[in-house]
């Protein structure tokens, strides 16, 4: 009887473990997470630029991977990067080009899953402040709103200015965030032009408040501005963190790719039901119009194209003298190992 009791107890334990494995397949199959509590910094979470992060959070995909994520929202990507450098964040949901910028400063950070395959940033001039606008040269001496100085919205503005022969010092950049504050800054005349993400830019455009002069919200527009594919939002961390926490990074990549897979078939009503009400900025119809405009810019599978890394380096080196193209080792700015495994698992 004793042996039967032991074997029954053993059987029950195995059955419970098997059930747990079914409930959390990623944790079960990829080994123990080195870190279950992960702090993530993001700059402007309400923007469509970071929609995959919000979807994965709201639908519980991080929890399904055994992760307890704490997301801190900052005014712009450069602030989120500062949180990583300062040690208050483990991972950043931010622009891929920051990995290149940081390597030029001898700091190695690595992207490990892609969320956006186009920057989704548009630049426009205020029709009220600059009714007679003719070309980019007219921006000399003007105030340009960006999410935060040093962020990717600033980078796109710098690129547009440089092609017209203007330097960043020829204008004044003003940090306005990526939500209601950005709308207020333009409407109240605090800025003359703005480089920002959606839904903000579509809302201003549809009401005739800005004239768009550069647009990377579509793959075609991105090709025209950058001359190639330009990777955008991704998860990045110190290379050392990625190396020491492979199972944790895999779980993070899994959650994002799961969200990307969901987004491939999600309808407008699904998006409205999933994102926080405050993200709609008081106008559901315009929010959905914005989503339709940027939908193709969202990554399908989390994999960063090698050609895109070259596009990003060329763009940065064209206006930032501190980025020396011949000194940057692009293979150290990203890895697709985690995204490939996640893609295979979710058939993304």
TrEMBL record:
<dbReference type="Pfam" id="PF09084">
    <property type="entry name" value="NMT1"/>
</dbReference>
<protein>
    <submittedName>
        <fullName>ABC transporter substrate-binding protein</fullName>
    </submittedName>
</protein>
<dbReference type="InterPro" id="IPR015168">
    <property type="entry name" value="SsuA/THI5"/>
</dbReference>
<comment type="similarity">
    <text>Belongs to the bacterial solute-binding protein SsuA/TauA family.</text>
</comment>
<dbReference type="InterPro" id="IPR001638">
    <property type="entry name" value="Solute-binding_3/MltF_N"/>
</dbReference>
<feature type="domain" description="Solute-binding protein family 3/N-terminal">
    <location>
        <begin position="37"/>
        <end position="266"/>
    </location>
</feature>
<keyword id="KW-0732">Signal</keyword>
